[in-house]
Design a protein that fits this description.
Number of helices: 10
CATH topology: TIM Barrel
CATH architecture: Alpha-Beta Barrel
CATH class: Alpha Beta
Strand content: 15-25%
Order of helices and strands: EEHEHEHEHHEEEHEHEHEHH
Largest sheet: 9 strands, mixed
Number of strands: 11
Shape: globular
Length: about 240
């Protein structure tokens, strides 16, 4: 947001946690498997805000880089990929322009098309409600039906983010992850809620999720990817070599 790395809580209030390029350099030295950058600026949604960042991050990182936030067209996806992004994230546009994922997958391969889903639990409706536009616009689409549709359109990965757990460091929403895993035949990355390595272990063991994304866990305190992998390896959870 506005050129800074920020961490939100439930997609609302946020804290500035530093320079995104400097943080990327640190994560590179700590053997992170992948970095995901999401433009969450509520007013400036242009892809141009990410292009300068890609160039700077690419100079200090040697791992897959995924960029998204406000992506609306194949031309914008092409800009990101030609400037250094390995993958692009589509979220709101998957509701407004469902064919965009198919276009991206058709030109760059399914591995480059990441479909992101933001969801919060509704007690009144007793179901997960999906949201677009940085969590501000409810979408009348069933979670598992949406997952199935995204795959059919060519998404190579599903990135599921719990709005309820975002920034809380209270643990991942296991029920949400399990529902997505049950509907997905492609890799699933779960995000939102990591506060301890035990939370990561719980999510891997209880849901068989493909990967976990962490923000607050590594931004606040002395936790890092090296220590996380060392902890999880003790429970026979395999990780790729980097």
């Amino acid at each position: 947001m506005n050129g800074r790395l920020v961490k939100t809580t439930r997609f609302d209030s946020y804290r500035d946690v530093g320079d995104p390029v400097a943080s990327s350099k640190v994560y590179n030295s700590q053997y992170a498997d992948e970095l995901v950058f999401l433009n969450i600026n509520r007013t400036e949604r242009a892809v141009s805000t990410l292009l300068d960042l890609i160039e700077k991050v690419s100079a200090v990182c040697f791992m897959p880089l995924t960029f998204g936030g406000g992506l609306k067209s194949l031309a914008e996806a092409e800009q990101l990929i030609k400037n250094g992004a390995d993958k692009v994230v589509v979220n709101s546009s998957s509701f407004e322009n469902p064919g965009l994922i198919t276009e991206i997958a058709g030109k760059f391969g399914s591995q480059a098309a990441v479909a992101s889903i933001d969801a919060r639990w509704s007690e009144a409706q007793h179901r997960y409600v999906l949201a677009s536009d940085c969590g501000r616009k409810p979408e009348a689409v069933d979670l598992q039906a949406h997952v199935a549709d995204l795959q059919a359109r060519g998404a190579g990965e599903i990135f599921i983010n719990s709005i309820d757990r975002d920034g809380t460091m209270e643990g991942y929403d296991l029920r949400l992850i399990q529902l997505v895993m049950a509907a997905s035949k492609v890799p699933v990355i779960a995000c939102g809620g990591a506060g301890t390595y035990a939370h990561m272990k719980e999510a891997f063991v209880e849901t068989d999720v493909s990967a976990l994304a962490c923000g607050s866990l590594f931004n606040f305190g002395d936790s890092n990817p090296i220590r996380a992998k060392a902890f999880l390896t003790n429970y026979n959870l395999p990780f790729k070599r980097v």
